[in-house]
């Protein structure tokens, strides 16, 4: 899924940086600034998408986040302002939301 989304973002003219888990994402987020973060809710490791979103809210406020998940019941763990795309979803719909969020003034 990560590679498919990275390719779709690249095809849409956007640059995607991939991380295999939340620890890799945190490492990137502590050294670089990103216009948007897309994360899965359930990931390998000790930090899941909920923990990653919470860290972003605290350490990088204003950074937009989109969550994708196959665990429909787990979305209640997120604040309601975070857009959630439930698998399966249309990549075109996600790209539309990405563009909306990147164009939205912060």
Question: Mind sketching the topology for me?
Answer:
Layout: H1 2-11, H2 22-31, E1 37-40, H3 49-59, E2 65-69, E3 84-86, H4 91-103
Parallel strand pairs: 1-2, 2-3
Helix pairs in contact: 2-3
Total number of strands? 3
Strand content: 5-15%
In CATH, the topology is named: Rossmann fold
The CATH class: Alpha Beta
Backbone CA Rg: 13 Å
Structural class: alpha/beta
- Any idea what the CATH architecture is? 3-Layer(aba) Sandwich
Ranges with pLDDT <50 over ≥5 residues? none
CATH superfamily membership: Response regulator
So what's the oligomer here?
single chain
Average of the residue pLDDT scores: 91
Helices and strands, in N-to-C order? HHEHEEH
Q: How many separate domains? A: 1
- Overall 3D shape: globular
Total of DSSP H or I helical runs spanning 4+ residues: 4
Order of the strands making up the biggest sheet: 1-2-3
Major β-sheet profile: 3 strands, parallel
């Amino acid at each position: 899924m990560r590679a498919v989304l990275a390719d779709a973002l690249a095809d849409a003219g956007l640059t995607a940086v991939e991380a295999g888990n939340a620890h890799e994402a945190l490492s990137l987020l502590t050294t670089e600034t990103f216009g948007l973060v897309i994360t899965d809710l359930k990931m390998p490791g000790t930090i899941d998408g909920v923990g990653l979103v919470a860290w972003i809210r605290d350490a990088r406020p204003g950074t937009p986040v989109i969550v994708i998940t196959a665990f429909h019941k787990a979305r209640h763990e997120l604040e309601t302002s975070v857009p959630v795309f439930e698998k399966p979803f249309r990549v075109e719909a996600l790209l539309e939301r990405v563009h909306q969020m990147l164009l939205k003034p912060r």
